[in-house]
Amino acid sequence: GQNIDQPTEMTATEGAIVQINCTYQTSGFNGLFWYQQHAGEAPTFLSYNVLDGLEEKGRFSSFLSRSKGYSYLLLKELQMKDSASYLCAVMHSSASKIIFGSGTRLSIRP
Amino acid sequence: GAGVSQSPRYKVAKRGQDVALRCDPISGHVSLFWYQQALGQGPEFLTYFQNEAQLDKSGLPSDRFFAERPEGSVSTLKIQRTQQEDSAVYLCASSETSGVQDTQYFGPGTRLTVL
Predict the structure, then answer these.
(1) Of A20, A22, A79, B90, which sits 20 to 30 A from B40 (CA to CA)?
(2) Percent of chain A, pLDDT > 70?
(3) Listing from the earlier edge strand, what are the strands of the sheet with B65-68?
(4) Residue A24, SS3 per DSSP
(5) What is the DSSP letter of B25?
C-alpha cells in the first residue's frame, strides 16, 4: 500500500524561506512529484524527482532521499501569491497512477 | 494550445440521479486520468486510460462509477444513482505519452454536489 505524510498547515512570512516535508511508504516507487494548488483551482506541476538529490528551479527546489522515503519542497523569497496547498505525490511502480498526500496549506503573511 | 477542459464546472444532483462529467484532454495526449478530490484532501486516483484502453480502474469506488474514452480523446465519467458521499471535485488530467515521469496536466475540475 501507500502512505504519504505531510504537515496539514504552515505559515511563513513574505520574503522568507519555507521547507515543506513529505515522508512516504510505498510498495513500489517510480518518482515523486510536487504540485501547487490554489483554492478552487487545478493542481499545477512544480517538480519531479526520481533520483536522490536536489533539483532547483528558480525560487523552488525539491529534494529526494529514496533510502529514507523523504522529500522536501523549499520555497525561497516567498511572495503572497505562494499562498496555496502543496501536494506531495508518489508515482506507483505500476506507472499508471499517482498517489497524492493530503496537501500542506501554506499561508504567507506580510 | 488549450489546456484540459472539463464540463460542467458545477453540478448539483438529487440523490439517486445519474450524472455525466466530461473531460477534453490536451489534443494528442495519450494518457488520461480521473481523480476525486474531497474538501481539504489530495486528489485520489480513480481510473486511467491509454488512448481508448482503460488500463486501470482500481480506484473507482463502486460499480456505480463508469468511465469511457471511446475514441481515445474525450472522456466521460458517469456516476449512477448518486449518493451524498459522491460530493467532491472530479479532476481530469492528461499527459503526452505513457512515460512514467510524464507531467500530468490537470483540468479545472467539476464540483459535484449531491443533495
Answers:
(1) A79
(2) 95
(3) B5-7, B19-24, B75-79, B65-68
(4) strand
(5) P
Q: Reply yes or no on whether the pLDDT at A13 is more than 90.
A: yes
Amino acid at A35: Y
A94 shares contact with chain B (CB less than 8 Å): yes
Of B80, B81, B79, B99, residue with least CA distance to B36 = B79
Per-residue pLDDT of chain B (115 residues; tens, 9 = 90+): 579 999 999 999 999 999 999 999 999 999 999 999 998 899 999 999 999 999 999 999 999 999 999 999 999 999 999 999 999 999 999 999 876 667 889 999 999 999 9
| Separation between Cα atoms, residue B47 and residue B35, nearest integer Å | 7
Give A 8-67 residues with CB within 8 A of chain B: 30-31, 41-45, 48, 50
Q: Identify residue A104 by its one-letter amino acid code.
A: T
Number of helical H runs and strand E runs in chain A: 0, 11
Other CB atoms within a 10 A radius of the CB of residue A100 amount to 24
d(CA A60, CA A55): 9
Residues A71-99: tens digit of each pLDDT:
999 999 999 999 999 999 998 776 567 88
Q: In whole angstroms, what is the distance from residue B13 CA to residue B37 CA?
A: 17
Q: What angle do CA B48, B50, B51 make, to 5 degrees?
A: 125
Length of chain B: 115
E strands along chain B, which residues? 5-7, 10-13, 19-24, 31-37, 44-50, 53-56, 65-68, 75-79, 88-95, 105-106, 110-114
